[in-house]
Amino acid sequence: MFLNEKRNLNLNGAIFLFSSFFCAGFATIQVSLVPTKGTNNAVPCNPQSSRLAAINGAEPRLSAEQKFMRTRPPSAYCVRIESCSELMTRSPNLQYETRPFSVGGFNWTFILQPFGNTTSVGDWISAYVAIDPSGLVGENREVYADLRFLVYSKSKDQYWTSMDTEIRHFHQFRTTWGSPNFIQTKQFKAKDKEYIFDDDQCVFGVDISVYPYFNQWEILSIDKTVYGPNSWKLMKFSTLTRDFYISDDFSVGGKNWALKVYPNGNGTGEGNSLSLYVILSENQILKTYEKVYVRAKLRVLDQKQSKHLQKPILSWFDTPGEGFGFEQFVSFTDLQNPAKGFI
Predict the structure, then answer these.
(1) Where are the annotated coiled coils located (predicted)?
(2) CA 105, 106, 107, 113 torsion: positive or negative?
(3) Among 183, 211, 239, residue at a domain's last position
């Protein structure tokens, strides 16, 4: 054992151990990821892009719409219109707004405009949803929602679907979003599609997926202060008999630390090297999920020529009493060499 070797050499000097901290970071508050939903799109029937905008003169915004047929019916709300052809021949200013329905803890209405928009390729049916602004208070003052508008085709037994590729932001000053170019009027009236079926009926629907309000995060702060060294002098090193020794606590970056040394080595260093670690004090209390990032240098001092042996540490600390360091910090050969000046 190294202990016996030291006694034979009669090394009754002292060893100086130093630690020098360069910076510490603190991360607090549990992370909670906002869940998102994937889509399983059917084969697109019309990859055309169209304009998506707010209703009633609100600022328009361009965004790509994905349009396709799907089998699954609407998940938020559905409206069946009887005498559908009559609806399509009335005043161009006609608008139908459904009664309120609840999705994600908020009240919504579904709005259809049979003559909602006209472009160079013809007339379009427009579809929108509006959120009840009375529910936009406190943490719920902003709502993010994924929108899809649908109309049923009896001949295909599927729903023509217009999916907004952007998550829409609803708040007190923007309560309505939708698609001015939901489905072209001539396509809707096409007999082979059978959007109008069974004695002049048609069915429209909407999906609304509400995402939780973002109110959880974590904080990472960096302390760039270079702290002065902390020393620990082990006297009569050759007479040390315990497996390890721990220094008195010292404070750096608002946390308490200590040095831990194994005179006869630890792990791969047992019997051949001195092992040296810096540990977070056992008495240090951390917040839930708190962890500390440390850049430090560990040194064994050359007491003759100041050619100190030092090694860096860059590690996260999250458990009091545990730490990081080196199982083979300095070999017994170098430690016993009088020219090195370590003892």
Answers:
(1) none
(2) negative
(3) 211
What is the structure's pLDDT at 19? 64
In our burial notation (b when 16+ CB lie closer than 10 A, e otherwise), range 128-165 reads bbbbebebbeeeeeebbbbbbbbbbbeeeebbbbbbbe
What one-letter code names the amino acid at 41? Answer: N
Q: pTM of the entire structure?
A: 0.54
pLDDT at 12 over 50: no
For residue 8, the model assigns a pLDDT of 34
Q: Could you tell me the residue range of the domain that residue 315 belongs to?
A: 2-30+219-340
Which pLDDT tens digit goes with each residue over 83-122?
898 888 777 778 899 999 999 999 999 999 998 888 877 7
Count of CA atoms in the C-beta half-sphere (13 A) of 193:
19
pLDDT in tens, 200-247: 999 999 999 998 777 778 888 887 787 888 888 888 888 888 999 999
Q: Which residues contact 139 (CB under 8 A, 6 or more apart)?
A: 213, 215
Query: Regarding beta strands 60-63 and 101-103, do their DSSP bridges make them parallel or antiparallel, or are they unpaired?
Result: unpaired
Per the CB < 8 A criterion, the answer to whether 101 and 130 are in contact is no
CATH number of the domain that residue 306 is part of: 2.60.210.10
Q: Are 298 and 38 in contact (CB under 8 A)?
A: no
Domain assignment present for residue 36? The answer is no
